[in-house]
Amino acid sequence: MVELRFSSKAIPTTLLLLCFFLFLGNFRNAEARNRHYKWNVKYEYRSPDCFKKLVITINGNTPGPTIQAQEGDTVVVQVNNTLLTENLSIHWHGIRQIGTPWFDGTEGVTQCPILPGDTFVYRFVVDRPGTYLYHAHYGMQREAGLYGLIRVAARDPEPFTYDFDRSIILNDWYHKSTYEQAAGLSSIPFQWVGEPESLLIHGKGRFNCSQSPSLKTDVCDMSKCSPFVQTVIPGKTYRLRIGSLTALSALSFQIEGHNMTVVEADGHYVEPFVVKNLFIYSGETYSVLVKTDQDPSRNYWITSNVVSRNRTTPAGLGIFNYYPNHPKRSPPTVPPSPPGWDDVEPRLAQSLAIKARQGYIQKPPTTSDRVIVLLNTQNNISEYRHWSVNNVSFTLPHTPYLIALKENITNAFDPTPPPDGHEFANYDIFNVSPNANATSSNGIYRLKFNTTVDLILQNANTMNKNNSETHPWHLHGHDFWVLGYGKGKFDANNDTKKYNLENPIMKNTVPVHPFGWTALRFRSDNPGVWAFHCHIESHFYMGMGVVFEEGIERVGKLPSSIMGCGQTKGFHRP
Fold it and tell me: Signal peptide location in the record (predicted)?
């Protein structure tokens, strides 16, 4: 082996630094790796809240395995659909799928479903650090248990420190199957899904079987379930990555006696602020820092509670277990009281408090090229109850949009785009509107590539008097800037002057509060076809969504594995 020796005097400092940074760059690139997962998806009997029912599992578990990767890695997931009688697709929630729009996992939009007995391989790059989610995106399967977390570690130091990194998924839980719920939503007369029976904390809950004396112990057995336990060491700082994948409920999350410092939202660093109750909506993720600085001789309650709907579902309960106390030792106190379910003010205040962290601000364009006002309405179409946007209820086509557009398949969907607004000036958002001219359509918005688009989400009264619901809206393929929130009807002349253009947070999921509005801005710079929809399962099923196309001519060759349905029958090759 030849040993090379250099005199430090012979090599200028500038050259040494250049060589170091070149080495570091190559080393960082070399670190990117493939992360392989092999999943078997099937129905199994489980009792997450003591009540036994069929749930969808991944490798025998719900929630499914956490995907762990590092920024820049490629994630490869082989999905075997062993549901026997049911199609399947999986969406990688918060992953922008830059260069791989066909692996977004949205059946009817970006791919044909995975048929029973088939195997499908998803392959995508996780290009940003942060906390993300995955879940079923076929029918209402998500609420049957097919969901999990994605944790992407940063390559560079983060702007906060902690000792341990832990994850918690919050969910609500129904005892009826998704088939029963879907049938009711599609019936005349309309049958609403109702409120969930339980709230789960990382897949664990506790339904009081004695409330239903007719339930036999082989169906509901309180010895078959246990609360979620998060064991902690006193005197440490914990990063808790908290995600919500509720089917219906907005939640308040609390750890008894502990403050939480919010530092990340949907993969973006937040200017830190402290909360006792973290309000979280379906599809959102947060990282909070928690110091274990309380009396170490006892345990503490972890709670989740429904907000924004009349609270009939019992609290979800877990245990914040201070080691070495026994993890099953109940706290000596009653669980802390939740905020009022109908108190909008603290929820709006938290939404307004979320700003981009100094040093990590990505300022939005100061103006937009297009403004689309999306009025959220509820109406009847041919006696069926629907959720609609601008009086148009969304339906999915049989041939996915991405394939139809890229392969020039005509007549696959309605070529007429939805409206950019809806008689907005004269619409009374505070009263029940008949919306007599409501229609259903699978038409989509065609966006000019690489332009700036504003979306104004406007909430309104439902078909019940004095009622307006919270809607969490999720955009696939992008992050957007949250420019502002407001009460009442959006005023284009005055509310735009209040936009936050200095340090708005970027997110992929955001709530529109009752009788209020939310303003978003994004760049149409990711070639593909992307869904934007309410993340409440029943609402999207009933038509509360839209689809954006942008830069379709820039999309690469589609893999044949996403084809095989609608007018693409015969295109599929395993």
Answer: 1-32
- The span from the CA of 53 to the CA of 48, in Å, is 9
226 with 327: CB under 8 angstroms?
no
- CA 67, CA 59: separation in Å to the nearest integer? 13
CA distance 154 to 20: 21
- Over residues 4-49, the pLDDT tens digits come to 343 444 444 444 444 444 444 444 444 789 999 999 999 999 999 9
Cα 79 from Cα 111, distance rounded (Å): 14
> CB atoms < 10 A from the CB of 548, how many?
24
Question: What pLDDT is recorded for position 32?
Answer: 81
Helix H or strand E encompassing 348:
helix 344-353
Cα angle value 230/247/386 (rounded, 5°)? 170
For residue 226, CA distances in Å to 246, 316, 325, 451 come to 20, 12, 17, 51
275: enclosing H helix or E strand: strand 268-275
pLDDT 10s digits, 439-492: 999 999 999 999 999 999 999 999 999 999 999 999 999 999 999 999 999 999
Cβ burial 234-260 (10 Å sphere, 16+ → b, else e): eeebbbbbbbbbbbbbbbbbbbbbbeb
Whole-model pTM: value is: 0.93
pLDDT score recorded for residue 456: 98
